[in-house]
Structures are given as structure tokens and as C-alpha cells.
Amino acid sequence: MISVRIPSDHPRAESLHVREKLVQAYSDGIVATSGLIAHGRGEAFDYLLNERTSRPARNAAEAAAAILLTAKSPVISVNGNTAALAAKDMVRLGAITDSKIEINLFYRSRERELAIRNLLLKAGAHEVLGVGANASARIPELSSERRRVDPKGILSADVVLVPLEDGDRTEALVRMGKKVIAIDLNPLSRTAQKANVTIVDNLVRCAPLLIEVAEGLKKKVCLECEKLARDFDNGRNLAESIRIMKNTLSTLAKTGLANRRLEQ
Ligand code: ATP
Hints:
By secondary structure, the chain is α/β, with parallel strands linked by helices. Helix 1 packs antiparallel against helix 2 and helix 1 crosses helix 4. It has eleven helices and seven strands. Bound molecules: adenosine-5'-triphosphate. The site of adenosine-5'-triphosphate (ATP) has 18 residues, from helix 2, helix 7 and helix 8.
């Protein structure tokens, strides 16, 4: 693979670094081809958020952390892109919230499973569920490879965090009575629409934010977590994210010029 040196003064260095990470992970067999396409789709929505974590995203992250901390058996579901972009953060979040880590892939192969498991172990995970024969249970009414889950993990979980998920499985998990927390830059995706809590933010920014918020909440009393979880309204929160995107477009529609950050 040809590796590209990204000049540190390049105006879009951060975004290019993230892309390079994914391209490297693709050649390491961690990210699927469609994962690269999905990232591009996410980037387009991130422009509309001015590539910043919004207030509604922060509120959703607080509710998500509260739900994870008060869950009985929470699981963090990891796919190729999530492993490539946030393996360490997901493992850290798992440790803080006492969540298990499970691999779940749309394009499942033995090699990919093992490559992702190794990455997660290197990132500090003690146990990685959903690998090989351990993914022996099936989510009902789902025909993709994503139906395969671990009885010790997603099958018996009450809360599942699904960064960069596909809509079918989100719907199926909700039908099974699980609380689903999604991280998705596209507020219109079926995942974003069907999840109980959707954090409309880039995983790269959102993962450290979730850690910070969960660490803060863990020191407080349970009652605060319960209130945060109870009061959260996903529809209202999604509407706020969509309004931010609409306002960005309205401003652009007046002048045709993006703010400096995006213009560069
Ligand atoms: P759905 O099936 O939910 O309607 P989809 O077909 O777009 O959506 P996928 O192909 O699995 O589902 O795409 C994953 C989602 O992840 C996309 O909605 C994309 O916007 C989002 N996404 C991609 N990269 C990131 C990222 N870095 N942070 C947050 N979201 C991302």
C-alpha cells in the first residue's frame, strides 16, 4: 500500500488522517469496501454540522452514558470502521460502563473477525465476544450476517451501543426489547430514526466525549442517570440536529460561501 504523508499544515489534515486510518485498516482486512463508502456518506453530513459536536449531540451523549451506566448487561457492538477509528476508546468506554465488547459484521469472514479481535485485544480488551462459533445465536427476522450474535453478549443484553450501524439490525434489536444507542452522522438513516438514543456526531469526536461524560456521571448518584435516561426524547433531539443542518444550509443559500473552516 502507498502511504501518504499528510502535511500538518494542510487545512483538512484532521479529516485526511481519519481517511488514511480507514484506508490502512482496509488493507489490514479490518474495514470492508462498503465501510469506505459509508465513511464518505458520514463526512457529507459532518460538513452540515460544521464538523463540530453540537449541543443536541452532547445531550444525547449524556443520555447514552447514563443508560449504559444503569444497564444490567450492556454491550458495545463493534464493526470494522468502529474498530479502525475508535478501538481504544470503545474498550475504555466498556471498562467505565462495565459493558461487554462484541464484534458484529455485515461482511463477516474468519479473517476479518480475527483481525478486529486482535486490534481490540491490543487496545486493551480482556474479552471480545461474537467471534467464530461463539456468535451462535440469531436475531429473529434478520437475514444478513449481522443476525449472528453471541448468547453471552448482544442476545442477552438489555442495552446495545451500535456505532455506525445498519438500519435493519437496529430495528430488529428494538423489536427484541433492547435499548439501542446509535452514533450516526446521518439523522435520516433508519438507524438514527429507529434507535432509542441517537448521537448525531462523528464517532471520532463522540467516542472521547462519551468517555468524559461517563466518567463524570459515574461519580454521581444513580438518580441523576435515571433522570437523564428518562427525560431524553430522541425525536426532539433528532429534530434539533436536523435544524442545525438546515440553518447551515440556509446561511449557505444566502451567500453561497461556506465559513472559513469548510471553505479551505
Ligand atoms: P441505514 O441502513 O441505517 O438507513 P445506511 O444504509 O447508510 O443507513 P450503513 O451503510 O451501515 O447504513 O452506514 C453507516 C452509517 O454510518 C451512515 O449513516 C453514515 O452516515 C454513518 N457514518 C459513517 N462514518 C461515520 C462516522 N465517522 N461517525 C458517525 N457516523 C458515521
